[in-house]
Please model this.
Amino acid sequence: MKKTLSAILLACASLPCQNGLSQDPSKFIDHSLLVAKEYPCNWPTHPFPKFQIVHQSSVGPASPYNIDSLYVDGNTGTQLDVPPHSVARPELNREKSGPLGLATTEKTEAWQFGGEACIVDTRDLLDKAPKGVSPLVTPDYIDRFEAAHRKLRFGDVVLFRSDYSDRYYRPFPEGSRFINDVVDKKAPGYPDPNPETMESLAARGIMALGTDSASMGPMPDLAEPTHYAGLRHGMIWTEGATNFGQLPSTGAFYCFLGPKHEGGPYGEGRAFSIVGGELPKKLIESCKSKRAIDLSPTLTPKFPMTNPGRNTGEHRQVYLKIDFLYSDYLDMHHHGHMMDSMAGTHLVPPSYALAPSDSPWEDSPEVRLWLDEYEKKYGKRAQSDLTTERVPIEWTCGDVRVIDVRSLVGSTDRASWPASPEITSAAIERYEKETGPLQAGQVVVFHTGVIDRYLKMPADAQGNFGSGLWTDAYSRKTEGWPAPGPDAIDYLSKKGIRCVATDAPDLGGVDPKRALMTYWALGSRQMVGVEFLSNVGSIPKQGGYFLFAALKIKDCHGGPGRAILLY
Model:
C-alpha cells in the first residue's frame, strides 16, 4: 500500500538526527508559528499591513515551476527584535540615543542567535490579570529559576514559558484571542517581563531572550519601557514563539534565524531547538565562544536578490522595501517587504518543480519532451505536497561538506553560451577521494564564489551594485555559474545527502532544460536546496555545523531565511 504524505513526514520526524559531531540521537523542535492569512500572524492595529502570499504561477502549461510572491512585515509570526526597535541612532542626540541604535538585524552577529535554552516557567500568570492588562514577570521569577537550577550566565537564552501561544494561536475567529481581544480589552493580556526583570537579566550578561507571548511588551503601557530596558544593553529576543513545553529547563540548544533585511529594527523568522545527544552542548559552546559565521548576504533593493528572467515578463517579484508608519522619535519608518519567495538565501522545497500529489496537470509540449528524456535516464518524475512549512528543519541542518568548484569557472566554450559549467558526479567522487566519503545527513555546499564576486563590485551613481549577477549570463556576456546536473543530484541522494546548497544564484544554472531536470531530481528524491549563500570561503575545512531555517509560511514553494555556520 502506498504511504501517505503524512505517514512519510511522521516517520521522518521520528528519526534521530545523526551527525559527525556525535553518534547520539538529537531531536529538533520547531518553536515557530504558522504564517497564514487565516491566522493572527500580524500585529492587528492600523496601519500595520497584513501578510499576503500570491501564487503567481503553478506547474502546468504556462510554467514548470510553482512560484510565489510575498508581502511580509517584520512583525509577522515568530519574530525578532533588535536594539533599534527602541534605541535611537547616536546622531539624533536624544535621551535614548546610542551606538546600538545602528545595530539593525543585518548587523547582529551570528553567534547571538543561539545559546542554551533556560526555561523560566510563568504558567501561573496565564490569564491572571484584568482585561487588556498583562500579568508581569517580575525579578523573583529569575531568582526562582536560579534556586531550582543554576545561575544564569552569558551564553544562555532565557525563554519565558507561559503556554500563551500554544493555547491561543488559532485560526480566526478563535484567533482573535491572541492579540485582538487583548488590545480591545476583551481578554487578559499575555504574560511579559517588566523593566526591572530586563535589568536583572542584563546584569547577568544575558544577550538573548524569547517569549511565547505575542510580544515582549506588557500591555497596556509597559511595552516600550520593557523593550528599552533590555534593548539598550544590546539584547535581542524572539517574540511569538511556541512549544517551549517540549524543552528541558536547561541543556537544549536554542536558535532563531530570519531573513537578513537591510536596516531592519525587527524581523520575521524561524525559532527552533535541538535536544538530546552531544550536539546541543557543542553548538551552545560555539555560540558562547562566538565561533559563528554568517552565510547570508544582506537583503537590499540595491542588489539583484531575485531572478530577472531570461525573457521579457519572466522576472520574479523584485525585492522591495515598503514604508508604512513613521516613528518621529527614532526618525525611522516601520516597514515591510514585497519579494519573491526565493529572494536572497532561501529554501528550495520538493514542491517547487513538482505538482501536488494526486493532482492532474498538463505540461507544455516543450517540457513534455524534456520529461521523456529525463524519465528514461532518472526514473519517473514524482509529485509532492512538501511545501516549505512541511519541510522539517533538520533537513536543512547538519555537518557541512564544502566542495570547491571554482575551478569550473571559465570552463565552457563561448559558442555554448548561455550555459553553466556542470558539477558532475565525477567531480564529487574526486572530492571524496581527497577528503573522505560523504556521510548520510551531511549538508553539501558547492563553493562557486559567484555571489561574493558580485557583492564586491562597486556601486553605481544610484548606489546599486552587482547588477550583472543574472543578466551577464543571460545576455551571453559571461558563462553561467557552476551548477549540479541531475546526475550529481542522483549520486548525492544515493549517499544519503538530504540538503544541497550553493553560493551561486541557484542550483539550476542558466540552461532552462538542465535546470528543470536538476530540480525534478531534487524534488523526486525528497531532497531540498539552499541557494544564494555568501562567505562560503570562510567555512573551516573540518568541524562546521550548517544551520538554515526558512520562514514557516503555509503553502509556500520557496522560503526566505538565513544560514549560519557554528564551529
Remarks:
- Residues 1-23 have pLDDT under 50 and may be disordered.
- Residues 365-378 form the longest helix (14 residues).
- The CA atoms of residues 404 and 447 lie 5 Å apart.
